[in-house]
Amino acid sequence: MKNDTNGRRDFIKNSGLAFSLMALNSNFLMANEDNGMGDELLKKLSSFNDGIIEPLLLKQISHPDSRWDGGVKDIYEVPHAHATMNFVIKLSSAYASPFSKFYLSNRLRKAITKAMKCIVLVQHDDGTIDLHSTNFHSTPDTAFFVNYLSPVYIVLKSLDQLKLKDLISYFEIFLKKTSKCLLIGGAHTANHRWVICSALARLNSFFPSSALVDRIDTWLNEGVDLDPDGQYTEKSVGAYSPVCNEMFITMGRLMNRDDLLDVARKNLNMTLYYIQPGGEVLTNASGRQDSENISDVTGYYYSYLYFSHRDKNPVYAAVCDFIENKLPHKLTPFITYLLEDKSFRNKRISATQFPKQYFKRFKYSGVFRIRQSNFDVSIIENNPTFLSLIKGSAVLQSIRLGSTFFGSRGQFTAENVEVKKNQIILTKSVKHGYFQPFPKNKIIGDGVYSKMPREERRLSEPQVINYKLIITILDQIIQLSIEVTGTEHVLVSLEMNFRKGGKLSGVISDKNRADSYFLKEDWGTYEKDDNVITFGPGKIEHQWGTMRGMQEKPNGNTVYINGHTPFKHVIEIS
Question: Which residue, of 188, 209, 239, is where some domain finishes?
Fold first, then answer.
């Protein structure tokens, strides 16, 4: 994940094709169990993790007079608690794994002990730690620490080795002290509440206290921010949704609260339809920073794994199989979870498949997900990126539409949506103009313009622009009919952004900007690893790509189809 959790953790033919998860479960719950990857997975992950241990050891600070003695610096040469925590987790994963060449290594034990001592020393008197890049005396970041260090603490303690006495004591000093802030501290974001609650549940499992449970109840009394689709408030499929799931699972299992486990289940059921070919997950609709990043399903591994065992869910087991087979190198952050709960390494129910053929609308999230095998389409409401397509390894990252209509008002985002069989109709109308003199009886007289707001001025010379997009999807072909009307002679631009790494043809280069192209009246193609996306026909009435008022050109190779209002054009993408 390329977002602020890095510091916290490394780690269609028509709607009749829609899958019913309930039906899938009822059909397959009688399947026989079979061996999971078990110890073989742990062996593989331990080998991956072993490869980074020696370079990590070189990063540990050794300055006895420094506050950061035993700590670790990041790539910017800044020592901080999060880098040190990740050091502890990775080294502990090697130390505690019987399949690691560093198993029970005294060298690692000493390094981990020094690092935990450093974390204790930099922990504030109020129990908090800092996220040096933004949050100071941070209760939420302290809660992340408790959640991610707790499995390490459990695993190391279970080794029952006298020589770990000092290390275990540093864990306990740190964990006990965090209750100071967790019992009274606040949060910044929606997910922080559940991270804090999960940390409180962890502490209560180690050091039982009714005050810890009462604080959990105080947060839970706000109600869980899960919409009827199964999506959390932040819609952060690539970052915070998997975090929330993990936290609700932790609370549910440690507090015997099935209702909290149901929260995670509901999100996981929805997420099945957000998985794209190759294992990526749709992030364009996120309300957080992962909206601009490429993320994959590995962040959900623990949650799908937990329920594949608890519920004997064959669809969840299929997701685990997919991740273990296709993305195993990204699973090393879960080593301590596999060691904490050895049942995860037991045989699990035989996997079936997760959905790969459907037309689904998540109305509350404002997302349509349409998949026909490796042809994967996302349509998003209230978002500049209204459409994206993955065809195997070829990715049309985003399609956006804009005009030069009064600045940023010209950027199209769908405000109204209508569905007619296999057609999705997106519309928006914008009215703007100019403003008359401020009402005489309201003029203060000091001439300060900000004290004479537009809301109190009469709009005159009104101008209007109307957008109508009809998206038809049939047999792995997208037909996009675009109509932009209203005020005449407004410049219009359709922007198609293809992920870098592929080859574009049939387009002409933008002489004013790199990685920018135009499509004339013919057809263009984008090819990656024998997967081809064809699009056209084009139109090029002007050669201004990212026009005034449009959002900045995204990374990647961008193709523009341009005209003026009234603008009517139909393109096909296949």
Answer: 188
